[in-house]
Amino acid sequence: MEQGAQLELDNQLCFALYACAREVMKLYRPYLDELGITYTQYVTLLALWEKDGVPVKELGSRLYLDSGTLTPLLKKLEGMALIRRERDRGDERSVIVRLTEQGRELKTRAMTIPERVYCQTSIPEEEIVQLRDQLRKLTAAVHEQSCGPASS
């Protein structure tokens, strides 16, 4: 790479990921607007539709969200009657997040979102799956590095 080229915007991994994430979220926005939820609320509900009745700490870990971000998000979802939070009877320090009936019913309305989003790209499904898998690998590597011994 030419000297100075490593600082060009188009050569930055972070910018490529940032720009891509923004554009992909734009594809989701109209469908999520139909449901009356934000993207962050959507991914939270996806996690709960996959596994309901989880501790807040586990949910935050699954979503890569800290408690300062997750707590207001959960309060908002609770205010929308999509989830409820309750103390774990076995451990009063732990709060369990559960879907309400309304939260479970929203899953049916959301079922077509992934396909509708994929249809708006011109990338074949196999390539999207490969890209998703590479992004998961990158996320895990970066997360492991930031949480491992080197981050001390």
UniProtKB/TrEMBL annotation:
It comes from the Bacteria. Pfam families: Staph_reg_Sar_Rot (PF22381). Keywords: Cytoplasm, DNA-binding, Transcription, Transcription regulation. GO terms for cellular component: cytoplasm. This is MarR family transcriptional regulator. Its main location: cytoplasm. InterPro entries: HTH_MarR-typ (IPR000835), MarR/SlyA-like (IPR039422), Transc_reg_Sar_Rot_HTH (IPR055166), WH-like_DNA-bd_sf (IPR036388), WH_DNA-bd_sf (IPR036390). GO terms for molecular function: DNA binding; DNA-binding transcription factor activity. Residues 10-140 form the HTH marR-type domain. The keyword Kinase does not apply. GO terms for biological process: response to stress. It is found in: Cytoplasm. The keyword Transcription regulation applies.
